[in-house]
Amino acid sequence: MDRLAVITSSIKHDNVDVQLYGLLHLSSLLQTEKELFQACIGEKDHVEPIIREIMDALLSGCRDEDENIRLACADCIGAVGALDPGLLSWRELQSEKEALPLGADTDGFISVALIHLARSFQQCRETQTMDAFSLAMQELLKLFKISPDEKSPKKNIWGSFPREVQEIMTPLLSSCYKNSIGPNVQMPHPVIGSKYGMTLNDWACNWTFVLLDCISGPCVQAVFDACAISLKRDLQTLLFFMPYILLHAVLSASPVNIKCFLEEMLAVMDTSSHIPQPSHDDEQPSYAIHLSGSRTVATEGLNADTRMMCAKTVFTLIDFVWRFTREWISAHYLSSNLREDPVYVALKAFVSEISALKIALSNIECGEYPRALMYLEMFISKNPQQFQEQLWLFMKIYARLNEPDAVHGIMATREQEPSLEELIIVHEVTGQLQDAVACYERLAQDETRGPDFYKGMVQCYLGLDQPITSLRIAQGIVSERPEMARVMQEFEAEAFWRLQMFDDLGSLLSSPEIAENKAWGVQAGRALLHFQAGRSTVLHKHLKCMRMELLDGLRTVSLEKGSYQEEYQSIVRLHILNEMQRTEEVVQAILKNVSNDQQCMLLVEQLMHEWEDRLKNVQQFSRAKEPVLSMRRTVLVLAKSLIEEKLPEVAKYLDKEVGRCWLQSAVTARKDGLYQQAYTYILNAEKFHLKELFVEKAKLYWEKGEQDPAFLTLRRGLEEHFTNVENPDSCFAVTGQSDSKICAEAKLLMATYNDETVNVDMDVNICNYKQAVDACRQWEKSSVCLAQYYDRVLGVMTDEERNTRGGDIQVNMVNFYGKSLRYGCNYIYQSMPRMLSIWLDFGTSVAEAEKEKDRTRAKMEVINDMKTNLDKMTKIVDQLVEELPPYMFLTAFSQLVSRICHPHPDVFRHLKTIIVYMLLVYSQQSLWMLMPVYKSSSSFRVKRCEEVLNDPIFKNTTNAKLLNDFTRLTEKLIELTEKPIGNDVKYVTVSSLVSSLPRLLKSPDFSDIMMPCQQFTIIQLPTDDNRIIGHDPFPVKQVFIKEVCDELTVLPSLQKPRRISFVGSDGNQYMMMCKAKDDLRKDFRFMEFNNVVNRYLRKDPESRQRGLHIRTYHVVPLNEECGIVEWVPKLVAYRNIIIRLYKEAGNYTNNKQLKELSSNLSDSHSAKREKFERFLIPKHPPVFDEWFRSTFPEPYAWYRARTSYIRTTAVMSMVGYMLGLGDRHGENILFDTVSGETVHVDFNCIFNKGENFTWPERVPFRLTHNMVAAMGPLGVEGMFRRSCEITLRILRAQSETLMSVLRPFVYDPMVTWRSTSTSARPAARKESVETTNELAMKNLEDIEGRVQGMVRIKGSQCSTLALSVEGQANNLILEATNIDNLCEMYIGWGPFM
Length: 1393
Hints:
Blueprint: H1 2-11, H2 16-32, H3 34-42, H4 49-61, H5 67-80, H6 107-123, H7 127-143, H8 155-160, H9 163-169, H10 200-212, H11 218-226, H12 228-233, H13 235-252, H14 255-269, H15 304-332, H16 342-352, H17 356-365, H18 369-382, H19 391-400, H20 404-413, H21 420-430, H22 433-444, H23 451-463, H24 467-480, H25 485-498, H26 502-509, H27 520-533, H28 536-551, H29 568-591, H30 597-617, H31 622-643, H32 648-671, H33 675-686, H34 693-703, H35 707-721, H36 737-757, H37 762-775, H38 780-795, H39 799-803, H40 806-822, H41 828-851, H42 857-883, H43 886-890, H44 893-898, H45 905-921, H46 923-934, H47 939-949, H48 957-978, E1 987-989, H49 990-993, H50 996-1002, H51 1014-1017, E2 1041-1044, E3 1047-1050, E4 1058-1064, E5 1069-1076, H52 1080-1099, H53 1101-1106, E6 1115-1117, E7 1122-1126, E8 1131-1133, H54 1134-1144, H55 1151-1157, H56 1165-1176, H57 1184-1191, H58 1195-1218, E9 1229-1232, E10 1238-1240, H59 1265-1269, H60 1279-1293, H61 1295-1302, H62 1334-1347, E11 1350-1352, E12 1359-1362, H63 1365-1377, H64 1379-1382
Antiparallel strand pairs: 1-3, 2-4, 3-4, 4-5, 5-7, 6-7, 8-9, 9-10, 11-12
Helix pairs in contact: 1-2, 1-4, 2-5, 3-30, 4-5, 5-28, 5-29, 6-7, 7-11, 10-13, 13-15, 15-16, 17-18, 18-19, 18-58, 19-20, 19-21, 20-21, 21-22, 22-23, 23-24, 23-25, 24-25, 25-26, 25-27, 26-27, 27-28, 28-29, 29-30, 29-31, 30-32, 31-32, 32-33, 32-34, 33-34, 34-35, 35-36, 36-37, 37-38, 38-40, ...
């Protein structure tokens, strides 16, 4: 990792030579140490942070001016591979928005300007330009009296500069550069299109000096005059100053000049637009000229790229003026005469003159889709009646942003039936190419279409992997319309190489008409011909040219902005080029070493293993993987043709790999629901006679609903490839591990399908599942499935049957869940909690049976059988403790601790052994979780905890000291949390509240105690079954608490939570919040639940593609009444945001006014609704969307933040509903000012506790009109609804796993489930055995019902209706937005906000 960190810093270096050195070193590592990178990428749900940093540095390098750096970055990206965008979380790379200086004459602007000039000076190599920068810095330092002199009034500004900037500027404090700029040339109007505006540099420079002539104000003029020469000599400096020059020009110029500014900007945005003729009465500025005729701008000589770059410059200027206006309002909103402020009036008038729709249309033309969306939404917010009319634009934008959910949302909001053109976009974006082709063919019957239509149609057929059809269509189009030959060449070329028709491909590419064609299909065809001919040098040069072409699409890609997904196709193509080059190198190495068959075979096997790893990291959808697999098949066929004469065995191996590529395509298409494509791929794979193909074929039949063919295919496949299939005790005639896995998978499918269709009885199906286990004993999944089948059998038994004939079944469940844990971690959250629950619950049943006084002989026999079965279970668990890595049991540590009062002595003894084992191996994590039990008010729990902690195995000298220090620290933190503080106190010192705490932490013999932060406590599980042993579950280096900062902030809340900061052993500060009078065990369990949910959200391809997740943080309960919570920085409460926005809009309603407008609890429903609709809603119009535009002014950042808001809100809404989370008022929902994500806090009100409030809560989650409006014109349709549905689907699929996280509550009688009281800490409990919380069990049953789609019908106390995922999501959205529900909510909850 250290080596990678050094390389990353080199790639980010300002010096070109250092960058190139870093890139060459990285390229070398990517070739020689592939396993290191795969471990960083494939071992986690997210890639290692260093990989994100490397990818961000490489993508930044693709925008570098140096061609060598760009090529080296592209080469390294291809070597890393097309990493799934869902793995590259962009949140960690985001930086907070910098404050915008409110004028060029402010200290803030001058400080930023001086740093920019110094950086430009440092990178510059031209003497005259360096002199210009020196002059600018010299004059600005002098003008604002900035120096290191102690007497300088701006010494603080000098001190804020980085050291290297100070070194550059120090000589300029006494330099004597002179400004020698000449008079400006009179410019035509508009400048664009004239001889002064034929390049970006010329237009920007000349128009800027036109603007400068209009600026008044001595200080501002002096600032820009100082920089005038540098503006002419350096484009980047010009673009840096240009927004402020326009700003001050607008504030200073006359209406006539401002009109000319607007005309110039509009002319740039659309150089064919008509510029209105000014009135003869208007005063003309000195630079304005009259244009004759229609006054259309002459643009014949303008280069298309120049026009686009000039337009993008204007877009950034418009963005800046809008941002400045918002920042100005935010800074002056308390002013009573803001609306009359001349700056506000001038800027508002200026931006209102430019149509937001016009800006959106121009951005679409320039490919700036996030900005187009932002301005189109601004237009619709002012003109809602035009929403339906502009839906086509929304669809076009979202299609280009590759956002299928939003496209579906558009279709859902459309009032009229969509056109075939719109349906084509929908089908193409969602990958339903078969449906898109049907629409294309229907349209093709009506009239002759343009080139784009036929390009789309042929591309669809190629996407369906029907190259013969696409070739015939392309050739047919050319024969009927010869003028389209150039358009169709790309598709003909791609069809030829996909069909391996290389002679025809060569003939096509030898044509002069195609010589200059840079399309991907043509260029890939040329590369393959070079490969076939063995022209290595030419091939490598050609691949270099192809990378250069792809780099154009990567110029705007950045992980920080979140734009990686939008240009993922270019990343995939770099991935493909790397594999083509790598394969060619392997082939050449084989041809040089044909005498050594074994070595040649080893080279090919290594390449295939490398390919396998790389494909795992690609986005797991057909549209992403299929281009890779398609090219692999073609390359393998070429490689086979080159070596088959000399190495027939290697050629035969390559032939099989071609078949496996077809099989992989079939698997991916089936998982995407593309059954017709999957069937096509299977047909292509059949000629390669792969043994595993019949399994995939059966899966396809089953998912298509063809059950009989599925069973028939499995039976035939087993009979053909595996003998003696009818013998349940046979391990089958298999030839190796891979064969046994195929056989086991087929048998498991037989068992599963029979189970689903209830084709056979219980005993036969158990036999089927056992055969699957026996066929491959090292396969985790088969053991889990058998155990789960036993579990379902147990579930239909009565309580009495469970303890009699169900005893053996439970032993088998423990056995097979335990076996699955030996061979992998993919199902650990199903297996481990359930196995422990069976063992511990059965032990409780034995203890209860032994206490019964009325013991008949039959009863005694039952008890003896139960004890025998319990002994068997305990023995299995003991073996697992010895064999399994300890981190596996740590995943269920909360569950183990919750059963610490277990009534069976022998079970408790073994339970204690497991807990002690965890304490020995993971003492830091375990002790933090054990402390709340140790400090519990339950005397028996404390006694049991002491038994654990006093175990001789654990309590050696070192651990005794650690335990003592943990205990002392916990006690001091409890004291700090509960210490009374005065009402008006905002800041206090830790030492004044608990003076012994700072001394304790600073004492030299104080133990190393881990910082209780999420990054050090989340268990990272291995994804490779072969790496279970020796895996490090906590790869992040631990940081220990070294001291506590004395400053303590009292937060404004009833219970006065306190924010403190610990100093870690790494020197960083870690903020925590101490909360009193709050049972944080619920919050802790909720976070555990959320972390498990996150694991499954990341594993699901659809969820990972959308980045669905819950923002989590660490919670440490200290006892039943207080605890500490990891502080999450850069969050702002929803209520604070909305109130601030209403104040800025001059529309704030204070608490007194709200009270007058609100209803009483006793009012009728109709009265409450009338007040809500007539008074509250009109006084609180939607404003939340403005927060996103002001907080994220850069369009890409705005789009990503808004998308993150929608999706994180959806996920948390569904998860919160499942757990009955209430009290979601405006201070319990916060938003990240860096990423836009929704963050929920305070989970005390769970399990539907809110339904028993004085004002009962009526809605399942917060989804008020403000939150809906902030999602854009589509509202809940599209992204929000789809994210809800995906989340619900995953929660249902993993219901048993997720419930296991909540079940420990059943054995924690101290947790309040319904009471809303926050009274004093309960008195010590004296229970002597484990008790179950009956109310908890009832609530868990309700949660299980909700997870399965049960909804409560109004007026009924029970859930009687089960809905589909889509139906349940729709029902919840309707309930959350229902006015009848919202008007019944308590006014303090803010249903009107």
